[in-house]
Amino acid sequence: MKSWLTGCLLFWAMLTPAMAATVTQEATIIAHEQAALALWESGDPSGFLQLAADDVVYFDPFLSQRLDGKAALTTYYEKLRGKIHADHYQMLNPKVQLLGAAAVLTFNFISTNAKGSHYWNCTEVYRQTASGWQIIQTHWSFAKAP
User: Is the pLDDT confidence value at 109 over 60?
Assistant: First the structure.
């Protein structure tokens, strides 16, 4: 019994740093996204532009085709600057799946303003670089209201 308990404790001691690193990376990615969303919902796309990699690709339901590159995304977002506002917003069900130096973040999003509530699905693919996590792919789609 004692050797079994010792074995379990050693096993958990070895896993804990790796698990903590995973939790920290997941929390970091979610925090980056939440900070960018906070700016976005006050009309400022700067948070997402700072996170975007030079080779980012972007989809949303208001576009007829994919945007390629940070310059194209910047042009699109600058047209929206100051025009987006939410009185309340909420990121729901965030899930980060780590894949080496990449991570996929998926979540549901609800934003509410005087025009009503808007429901979204979002997928962001992040790449880890020497300077931190960058978004390399974004896909927003409309979601069914709960």
Answer: yes
